[in-house]
Structures are given as C-alpha cells and as structure tokens.
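Quiz preparation item.
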C-alpha cells in the first residue's frame, strides 16, 4: 500500500512538472509571438514610411515638371507679346499721335 501511495505521489509530482512545463511553454510561445508581432509592426511601419517617401519624391518630381511646363508656357507667351508689341509699336505711336493732334 505504501508503495502505491508513493507511486501516486510520484505520478502527481510528474504531472505537476508536466503542467508547469506546459504553462512555461505557453508563456514562452506568447512572448515569442509578441516579439514577432512587434517585428512585423516595425517592418510594416518602415515599409509604409519608405513608400510615403517614394510617393513624396514622385509628387515633387511631377510638380516640378508641371511648374517647368507652366513657366515655359508663360515665357513663350511673354516673348510672343513682346514681339507683337515691338512689331506694332510704331503703328500704335502714330495712331496715338494722330488722335492727340486730331488728324
């Protein structure tokens, strides 16, 4: 009988050890999973930040190109107007003079 009780106690100790190891393994898995999650979040954030910077650079480039086209168009219009004014200056002066003098 005494051997049976010792055997039961021994089995209970082994069972407690197994349960304790199970809890420890569960906690280790939980901690590992949290660490992996943190790493995944960090990687996602870095990836998103990189993509944002790429998009900003692309938008800056497109904006600079549009500004360049607008500037070029404006300069062309100014040259055209200056040329038009240069060609017609004498005629305008004569017409203004004639209107003032009354001819």
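Solution:
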């Amino acid at each position: 009988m005494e051997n049976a009780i010792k055997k039961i106690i021994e089995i209970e100790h082994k069972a407690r050890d197994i349960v304790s190891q199970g809890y420890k393994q569960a906690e280790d898995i939980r901690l590992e999973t949290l660490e992996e999650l943190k790493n995944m979040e960090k990687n996602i954030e870095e990836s998103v930040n990189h993509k944002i910077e790429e998009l900003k650079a692309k938008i800056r480039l497109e904006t600079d190109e549009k500004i360049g086209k607008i500037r070029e168009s404006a300069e062309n219009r100014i040259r055209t107007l200056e040329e038009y004014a240069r060609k017609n200056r004498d005629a305008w002066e004569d017409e203004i003079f004639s209107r003032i003098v009354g001819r």
